[in-house]
Specification:
Length: about 230
Amino acid sequence: MTQKPHIFLVEDDLSFGAVLKSYLEINDFEVDWVDDGQHALNQFKKASFDICILDVMLPHVDGFTIGTEIRKLNAGVPILFLTAKNLRDDVLKGYRIGADDYITKPFDTEVLIFKLKAILKRQSGTPVKESDFYQIGSYLFDFKLRTIDRNNSKQKLSPKEAELLKMLCDNQNELLPRETALKKIWGDDGYFTARSMDVYLTKLRKLFAEDTSVEIRNIHGSGFMLEIKS
C-alpha cells in the first residue's frame, strides 16, 4: 500500500482547522495539526513531513517566523502559506522565506488539493513526459511542427500557443500553475503577460470547441487544467 503524504498543518481557527484536517484526510493525506504557533516547532521535530501548510496570522508566533525556523531544520520540505490577506508584500515575504506556494482565504478546497499534489509531484522528481505528438480527444497535436490535426484538417499554432499547449498536455488532468507557465514561456508573471496568456488560452479553447471531451479549465486563482474525458 502506498504511504499517504504526511502534512504538517498549523492553523489557529479551531473550526476551520478541524474541517480542513478532515478534508485532507478524506483525500488520502495524513495530517498532524497544531493550533498554536508557539507549539509548532516542537511538534515539527517529532515526525517527518512531506509538506507544511502554515497559516500566516497566528497567535504568539506567526506563520512566517515558523516557516523561517522550519527552513533551518529542513531546507527541502515544501511550505504552503495560508493567509486572509492578498497583499503583495506578504506574498513576496513568503516566497523569500522559501514558500513553494501561497493560497488566500477563503479558498476552493479542490484548488488546495491540486496545489498540494503539484508541489509533491515536483518534489518527488517525477519525470515529465516529453513527446512531440499528443492525442487530445479527436485531435493530434504535433509540437515540433506546431500543428493540430482533426479529420485531415490542420491548423497552425504560434510558438507560444504550442508551448502553452504542450505544458497543458504534459500536465494533463493536473493543475498547471499560472506562474509556472508565465515564467517558462514569457519569462515573467506580470499583469500584462498574464493578460496575454489569457488571450492564447481563449484561442486554444476555440480550436477544441468541436470536441466536447476536451476542456481547458480555469482553476480559480491558481492556474489551468487540460481535461480529456474518455
